[in-house]
Specification:
Elements: H1 2-13, E1 21-26, E2 38-41, E3 44-53, E4 60-67
Antiparallel strand pairs: 1-4, 2-3, 3-4
Length: about 70
């Protein structure tokens, strides 16, 4: 089920997914996740490209992140 859900999310974003990372977190978080947030994971920072909460089943939130360009 999760893989089908991820496929649907990835298909909806299209070519914007080049050089992106998909993060899957539990739907019920202590804080509401915002598109303006930045993710830091394994020493790298990612801007949120797309945030897709599973409002039907309330199990997962899928976050598509794009690496932050080094300036």
């Amino acid at each position: 089920m999760l893989s089908q859900y991820l496929s649907e999310v990835r298909a909806s974003v299209g070519t914007k997914l080049e050089d992106t990372v998909t993060f899957v977190v539990r739907y019920d978080q202590p804080e509401t996740i915002l598109n303006s947030w930045r993710i830091e994971w394994q020493g790298k920072k990612y801007d949120i490209v797309k945030l897709t909460p599973d409002t039907a089943k309330k199990q997962w939130t899928t976050i598509i992140g794009k690496p932050v360009a080094n300036k």
